[in-house]
Amino acid sequence: MDTLPVHARSDDWVSSIGRSRGFHMDFGSGTWDGGPIGIPVNLVAGSQVPAVRPSFYYPGESDPGPYPIPTSPLREWGSDHHVLIVDTETCKLYELYDAGFTGGQWSAGSGAIWDLNSHALRPAGWTSADAAGLPILPGLVRYDEVAAGSIDHALRFTASVTQRSYLWPARHHASSNSSPTVPPMGARFRLKASFDIAGFDPRLQVILQAMKSYGIILADNGSNWYVSGTPDERWDNDLLHALDLLTGADFEAVDVAGLMVDPGSGQAQVAATLTVASTNPTSGVTISVSPNDGSGQGSGPTPFTRLYDGAVQVTLTAPAVSGNNTFRVWSGCTSTSGTTCVVTLDGSRTVWANYRDPAITPPARNDFDGDGRSDIGCYDPPRGNWYGFSSTDGFWQTQFGFARTLPVTGDFDGDGRFDIGCYHPAGGDWYVFKSTEGFWTTRFGYEGTVPLGGTLR
What pLDDT does residue 456 have? Predict the structure, then answer.
């Protein structure tokens, strides 16, 4: 997404939805107006639930089924009444719009069935349970993704006025407005690269980074700049409201035409950046690509960017130098063998070619820049601010942490540099930012305990 060109209609479409209008995360914990906040998902074993054929009032563009609808399924609160079901036995997704149960019979406005092992789209011109003819589930923000530290897909959002048209991969429109200054279904927007996410809570950074890396996709008519997700009691609603400060001006529409492999398929070519980093210069690292089409091949320095259809194997070879810069280890590779690293390039990735004196094992405590010498720093618990002075990088400052957390440091990814993190003694939650892998979190501990491991040698 970050390499795609800005769409020629970007200014018009952003203005149509609202340049100064704030965003709203349309999901959370608890209830609103009597029901859960967001679009829930039902996980079922299809052979264990009734096979139902709902009656549709748009039968011509609906899959007849049957649908494995459980007794009392989770249903979206509000007017759309979406029911989303994943059959874990067959790996199929079933989605219903305006689902209701009356007189012992299920009915819905429309229904769509998706094979999650296929890239196939709806027939051209067909709706789904969403106006854009797209599946709903893949565009939802889910708590488990945020907790894991990564969202690897575009996010679903709505706008009140849309065009009588649609863009790939959308298949349907729901408007009589033919003006090109309003966005069509399927229009993709991304958070601008200039938008600084560093000051946000790490959990919100996961959502913001997805908006930069994968964007948001217009999927239905509704409130402007409303982003969809699943209800979950673990959401912190006050925290989510920190994203209300986003406005349309922070986004730009992008032209995704170059990503299309086939008009009838949702499969996309992907723009990926491979960055090779090191504690020393990486000019000696050579790069080869398989399959090779002549692009993105050569020797360092990197990064280089290429479009690819599916995964690409990239082989990196580092020279086995001697003395104090003896080659020691790779980090971030799919597989390694001596001085060779193989990367499955299925997304943007950073690989570390770690040149270090092997006598320095482990690295010096709090060596944040990997030069073998300890650095100094301090942590402000009320605000989560870190202040450090590295011997090679000088002064640095970042915000990473939460109120009432304890600081932890350690080389958590084996790249020869200490990473920063914090521990929440009230819940036993760890939050770490690894220099090669990004944000990571886990729950391990008990209330009132003191963190160990990374703080000791």
Answer: 37
